[in-house]
Amino acid sequence: MGVRPDYQKRGIGSRLLARAEEFGRQHGMTEIATYTLGDSVDYKPYEATREFYFKQGFKIYQRNKTDNRGCPEEIKIKKQITQHGVTDDA
């Protein structure tokens, strides 16, 4: 998922993600996941990507080292999505 730089900071990414979460809920999914480059990669677009997902509630669940010197680490991140009307207290 991505939003062209000239359209960023307008809530488009948040709305796209909300729609993906709703689609997941409708199909019985309990989490949504993706991956990106880790914080050892000092590159502004990936810093912004990580910041976006963390702000949306994603958490790191796995870190992998790669053999690519330009991109030495990737992170797998996920967010729990609950069904409407269902709480974690059950």
What does this 3D model show about the protein?
- This protein has 90 residues and is of the alpha+beta class.
- It has a domain at 35-85.
- It contains 2 helices and 3 strands; from the N terminus they run αβαββ.
- The protein has helices at residues 12-26, 44-55; strands at residues 31-37, 59-65, 73-80.
- A 3-stranded antiparallel sheet has the order 1-3-2.
- The protein is flat, with a radius of gyration of 15 Å.
- The termini are far apart.
- The mean pLDDT is 90.
Tally of strands: 3
Order of helices and strands: HEHEE
Average per-residue pLDDT, rounded, comes to 90
Largest sheet: 3 strands, antiparallel
Radius of gyration in whole Å, from Cα? 15 Å
Low-confidence stretches: none
Widest sheet, order of strands: 1-3-2
- Give the overall silhouette: flat
Helix content: 25-40%
Could you tell me the strand content as a percent range? Answer: 15-25%
- Structural classification: alpha+beta
Taking the alpha carbons of the first and last residues, their distance comes to 33 Å
- Number of helical regions: 2
